[in-house]
Amino acid sequence: MHSRNRLSCGCAGHPLHRRAFLADVGMGMTGMALGAMLANEGVVRAGEPAPAGSPDATHLRPRAKSVIWVFLSGGYSHMETFDPKPALNQYAGMTFDKTPFENPVLSPLHKKRFRSVPSEEINVRDVYPTIFPMQIGFKKHGQSGIEMTDWWPHLANQVDDLCFVRNMWTTDNDHAAENQFHTGRHKLDESQPSIGAWASYGLGALNDNLPEFVVLGGPTRSDTRESIDALYLGPQYAGIPLSLDPANPLPFAQRPAGQSLAQQQQEYETIGRLNELAAVEYPEDQTLRARIRSYELAFRMQAAVPEAIDLAKETESTTKLYGLNNDATKVAGQRLLAARRLVERGVRFVQVFPSPYGSWDSHQQLKSNHERLCASVDLPVAGLIQDLKQRGLLDDVVVVFGTEFGRTPGLELRGGGNTGRDHHPNGFTVWMAGAGLKRGHVHGATDELGYHALGEGHYVTDLHATVLHLLGLNNRRLEVPGRKRLDIDHGRVIEEILA
What we know:
With about 500 residues, the chain is of the alpha/beta class. The protein contains 16 helices and 13 strands.
């Protein structure tokens, strides 16, 4: 029996072993509860069957080694970013039923892709019928001639390396959609591990000194923890938030004040010897062996992580490329540059939040809000694509750029509003770039008004399945004994965008 069970029971027939007690207490001696979360592939899987996507059970030939997953919280408007709709200008001020197009609210797709948490009688979201014109112009860019709005001048220069998916859809019409975008589950359903956790679970480490799944700038709030969580896969597969503060990049993993490096190493060695003694008594306790390895990783990370996120080592031209010399772009630029440094050093999955929680949620003042926010991200993310390409990393790394839902084609009228758009899960756009993907390509479309993703469209787990496929994993084979995933959890690979 696992030592922790014996310790917690303390009843007749379940003795409390001294060495097991020392091993358990030892985990808290230096405040290193994070250690278990940072265990690498060899640690946690020491006594488990190889997961479906581990190096010992690879499903497919991997096209990519790592993922940079960029998420803009709040829901950017697809029509004012990557899916321009000139019909909105042509029919501005009219209601849907006055246009020559089918009324999108009457389409069966509306109910299929809309699951309101409050009753429909209370929550009228997504059905504002008066058309709101585009708030910015647009042009065709690159040899591919892909249309983007004028708020993305720097990214437009990289358009021939991008792959747009314009027919994404989801079901949550509120900001729990931030979790749904990462887990595939609606707020009313049982939670599931995040996409980053599945990638961590399914793949081995490329660098034994760094975690497999790193988070920069998130989770955006306590109630969006699910977007980086591993749940039943185990905390060792959850995202590890790193700070870009050079003095404290590893929250909860600092040496105690007054303790030298040699003293800490001696302490770890002592705890390790005690755990090894316990391992003799409990030879089947693989969690204990995982714990021993996690101590070693935590110790190594204290040197590896600060070096990995030390942006001061970058050249002036590189920091300028990411916008670190401008207050408006500095935060996003730092996080995206750190993401490049991390994948360069073998981190499998880096989840980046360039903007705070809900920033893109433009119920009012969409024009001024999106103009400012696009300017804060445009240069840094364009710099990321250019930097990855010139270093040869775009052949090994997949970049995903998305948001939780789009915005309504209709003008939001709640509270007397007349300058914004509401949440819109029925159709929106994400883009990808890098290993194994078509470049300068557009897949899918929304209707003339930007309301519905046409055809079957792609639910968010299709995006998950595609990313995992590029990493060499079959999402349908990532199963855990005793846990039954639904068909919608698996998604389907978007074959049309693969190179």
